[in-house]
Amino acid sequence: MEPLQTRDLPPADELLEVDSAVQFKALSHPLRQRLLFALARRATMSQLATALGAQKGNVAHHLRVLRDAGMVRVVETRQVRGGTEQYYQRTARRMTFAGHQSAATAAMFGAVAEELDESTGEPLLLLRHVRLTEAQAKRLRAELERLVETAEEAGADEPVHGVLVALYPQGDLGAGGTDLGSARE
Questions:
Q1: Do 125 and 185 form a contact (C-beta atoms < 8 A)?
Q2: Cys-Cys link to 132, which of 37, 69, 102, 137 (CB 3.0-4.6 A)?
Q3: How confident is the model at residue 1, as a pLDDT?
């Protein structure tokens, strides 16, 4: 997908708080998750179908669901050979989820699992349980956010890498003092 000059794009919101039933439903399908990942940069329906190995009709349907939920928008329209070509992009750079929504978490992890399955490189997947004070957890959260947000983007010809970061207070599972260790896939 060729990049669009920043000056041509409507400004994306920095953050979208996902809090409505329509938005959570939109996130419930793995292809819609993959579309959201792909739409970090603008793309047409045909470009998305090719990049994701999906049929145009399926992509069109799922884009409509995401658009109705306010998660993607048309950023450019062009007349091409008697038809109209639309370029889509996410409405926000980042999304957060209101409250604890297990459906959203399951949808996100399902989409990440699909991406890991399709990865051409060796993915890194770590799970570690660490005992932290509230202050330590806040510092770690701030540092993780800083690392992800300040990661320098390479040129448009370079491969895209997915980054998923989660920091959460574990429930009673780790209360026995057992470190469940790390996993590398």
A1: yes
A2: 137
A3: 40
State the maximum Cα–Cα separation within the chain, in Å, rounded to a whole number. Answer: 67
Q: Are 57 and 101 in contact (CB under 8 A)?
A: no
Distance CA(82)–CA(106), nearest Å, equals 42
Q: Model confidence over 62-91: pLDDT tens digits?
A: 999 999 999 999 999 998 888 889 999 999
Amino acid making up residue 13? D
Distance (Å, rounded) from C-alpha 129 to C-alpha 180?
7
Beta bridge partners of residue 89, listed in sequence order = 73
Q: How many Å apart are CA 108 and CA 4, to the nearest integer?
A: 27
- Give how far Cα 10 sits from Cα of 6, 13, 88, Å: 8, 9, 11
Residue pair 36/71 in contact (Cβ under 8 Å)? The answer is yes
- Over residues 148-168, the pLDDT tens digits come to 888 888 887 888 788 888 888
If one counts every other C-beta atom within 10 angstroms of the C-beta of residue 162, the result is 11
Only one residue has tokens 């179908």, namely 49
CA distances from 46 to 1, 92, 119 (A): 10, 22, 21
Residues of the chain with pLDDT below 70 are: 1-12, 99-101, 103-104, 172-185
